């Protein structure tokens, strides 16, 4: 009896081995379906992995984009609105050379609240900003690095004061600066170091009492992506202009939210001894921006967005910052300013 059982098991094992060695085409239908069902998830997993940041063609992702931007007055900066464009000059397999241009209309300050401390900015002038830059991705595309430099101009019309001091001879003056920046952006963090260096006529007479000067500003902003749509940053800056008796540091914070493709709103808070506490807001929209893998469209690829989108974003810190001070000439105030 036991010998019969052992013989049956031996025959069954031999038959199983023979079935396993048969070609797939002649196996029974039931034996073919199981391996195929097991293989399909593996193929899907491989395909999903191929859809990551390494599979992005930058020539498809980095495109010309343009639109408008606006901002409320801040620490030495005006109420403004204008148009801008990001223009790729060359897109390689892992790098982009570009030029970014802005033209803004600068408007009057809020009544009784000077953006430059004493003298009210009044009337409308047009400022410009240009950045020439180069950005590239590291080997595994987890970081984007960039360098940019350019030129900014700011005509500034002036009017009365919010100090109660009567002035005459209000002037429209012209300031300009050279600028440079360094960038580093990952899926979560971003770093932006910048320098704004005025050139030309650094100090100019605004009226019979006050003179104004463009500030040297050097800073570093550190940002964090709370969600793909919401970003926060904190920054440190140092500003100086000896004629204005300005020489100190400041801090600023920012929250920015991407409402939809290319439309971003931001809120800013800064503090320093020269301007004290300043609150401002800004708005930017770019046609054609964020079209590739935008958070509101392709939420299944959130990891790709920050690094790839950073290649075609508009560089920050474009304003010529101005501060004014009482003019003293020959040891006497006010009347010897001209």
Structure description:
It is built from 4 helices and 18 strands. By secondary structure, it is an alpha+beta fold. It has 2 domains: 13-50, no CATH class; 53-333, Inverse autotransporter, beta-domain (Porin, Beta Barrel), CATH 2.40.160. The strands form 3 sheets. A 12-stranded antiparallel barrel has the order 1-2-3-5-6-7-8-11-12-13-14-15. The longest helix is centred in the N-terminal third of the chain and has 22 residues, at 29-50. Keywords: Signal. Residues 1-31 form the signal peptide. This is Carbamoyl-phosphate synthase.
Which structural traits does this protein have?
signal, alpha+beta, 4 helices, IAT_beta_sf, disordered C terminus, Porin, 15% helix, 3-stranded antiparallel sheet, 12-stranded antiparallel barrel, 2 domains, Carbamoyl-phosphate synthase, single chain
CATH architecture of the largest domain: Beta Barrel
Query: What structural category do the secondary elements indicate?
Result: alpha+beta
Radius of gyration: 31 Å
Per DSSP, the total helix count is 4
CATH superfamily of the largest domain: Inverse autotransporter, beta-domain
Residue runs with pLDDT of under 50 for 5 or more positions: 1-51, 291-304, 330-336
Strands, count = 18
N-to-C series of helices and strands: HHHEEEEEEEEEEEEEEEHEEE
CATH class of the largest domain: Mainly Beta
Describe the global form: elongated
Strand content: over 45%
What is the helix content?
10-25%
Q: What do we call the CATH topology of the largest domain?
A: Porin
Q: Please state the average pLDDT score.
A: 83
End-to-end CA span: 125 Å
Main β-sheet: number of strands, strand sense, barrel status?
Answer: 12 strands, antiparallel, barrel
